[in-house]
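Good morning,

Attaching, inline, the backbone tokens for the sequence recovery test we're adding to the shared suite. The designed sequence is right after.
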């Protein structure tokens, strides 16, 4: 697949259906490049929460080491299912779900050891109370217009006491240009402007959408979705990590947070 135009970047409203359609198309076109660019950093069977490189093996946000054995875990926006493969190695029973067929083809390229489901996070094709844990490393949540709908779906498929842990771009980043260098250090937009970031084609159709929520919005969304927030993790940039990933870099990472990880539980 190819694109013969340069999309226009703008801020404008984009609803659920338009956001979902744009995400599917964008990831179909860009999955190859994403995996080529970031596959080595992600590792085939590591669970990395974001560009800082925080690894679930050290973070233990899903539960203490050893506690995942035998648990049913749903990974949402799994991409090439690297996190699910790590979960399987811990003895969990993961299911990797993603909207993009091409991303899931990359999962198959790496291995056929994890069940894969092609579906939208807003309508999970599972029975109630099917999983003990749900997780998502930058999958789906930043791209949907109605995160509460996703959270309610996640709650529905989780068993009582289940954990839901997801990472997103840290909301403070929206006030700064998405640049890894010094130009990304000066506030250029209102943190409070929730208008989505949209790239659109010549006909005005969205081809990429990202939705901004403030920290307070995210907390309210978690609660409206039926969860308790038990931790909010802001990974610090570690000394060993010298890589740039889009607007994430050691320069910015040492000054402002780049990722927010919400650790939630349902009663
Ligand atoms: C930034 S990638 C993250 C992939 C993987 N978690 C990782 O860390 O590499 C975002 C993923 O979310 C998926 N995605 C976006 N919107 C989605 C939706 N509404 N439902 C399910 N998956 C979605 C995309 O297809 C893409 O694979």
């Amino acid at each position: 697949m190819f694109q013969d135009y340069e999309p226009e970047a703008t801020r404008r409203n984009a609803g659920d259906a338009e956001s979902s359609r744009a995400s599917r198309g964008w990831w179909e076109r860009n999955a190859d490049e994403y995996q080529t660019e970031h596959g080595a950093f992600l590792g085939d069977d590591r669970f990395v929460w974001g560009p800082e490189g925080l690894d679930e093996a050290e973070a233990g946000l899903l539960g203490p080491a050893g506690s995942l054995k035998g648990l049913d875990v749903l990974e949402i926006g799994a991409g090439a299912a690297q996190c699910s493969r790590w979960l399987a190695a811990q003895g969990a029973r993961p299911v990797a779900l993603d909207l993009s067929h091409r991303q899931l083809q990359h999962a198959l390229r790496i291995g056929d050891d994890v069940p894969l489901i092609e579906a939208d996070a807003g309508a999970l094709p599972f029975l109630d109370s099917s999983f003990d844990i749900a997780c998502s490393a930058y999958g789906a949540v930043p791209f949907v217009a109605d995160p509460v709908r996703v959270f309610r779906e996640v709650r529905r498929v989780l068993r009582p006491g289940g954990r839901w842990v997801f990472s997103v771009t840290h909301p403070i980043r929206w006030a700064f240009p998405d640049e890894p260098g010094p130009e990304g250090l000066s506030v250029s937009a209102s943190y409070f402007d929730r208008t989505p970031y949209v790239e659109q084609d010549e006909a005005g159709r969205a081809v990429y959408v990202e939705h901004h929520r403030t920290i307070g919005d995210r907390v309210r969304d978690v609660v409206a979705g039926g969860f308790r927030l038990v931790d909010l993790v802001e990974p610090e940039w570690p000394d060993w990590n010298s890589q740039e990933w889009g607007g994430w870099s050691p320069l910015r990472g040492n000054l402002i947070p780049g990722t927010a990880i919400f650790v939630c539980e349902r009663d």
